[in-house]
Write a structure and sequence with these properties.
The chain has 76 residues and is mainly α. The protein has a domain at 33-57. The chain is 72% helix and 0% strand. It contains 3 helices and no strands. It has helices at 8-11, 19-58, 61-71.
Length: 76
């Protein structure tokens, strides 16, 4: 039996990826990054809304009533 002589580079060549496979990988990466940005924005928005609600609920009723009545003025 004869042994076939192959060099290491011939035996361990990685499979060649096509352009289609590479473009799908880029699209998938961009999609994941956009989802993470949107989730971060929603988290920040909810945190801001919650902090504004806590500020409003911690104020006395007289301050809230005064601020709403002063914003609505009737001219004679």
């Amino acid at each position: 039996m004869e042994k076939e002589n192959y060099s290491d580079s011939e035996q361990k060549t990685p499979p060649v990826s096509t352009v289609t496979q590479q473009s799908w990988g880029a699209v998938l990466a961009i999609f994941i990054i956009l989802i993470m940005i949107v989730l971060g924005a929603v988290y920040a928005w909810n945190k801001r809304v919650a902090s504004m609600k806590s500020i409003i609920t911690n104020q006395p009723a007289s301050v809230i009533n005064a601020s709403t009545t002063n914003s609505i003025s009737v001219q004679k």
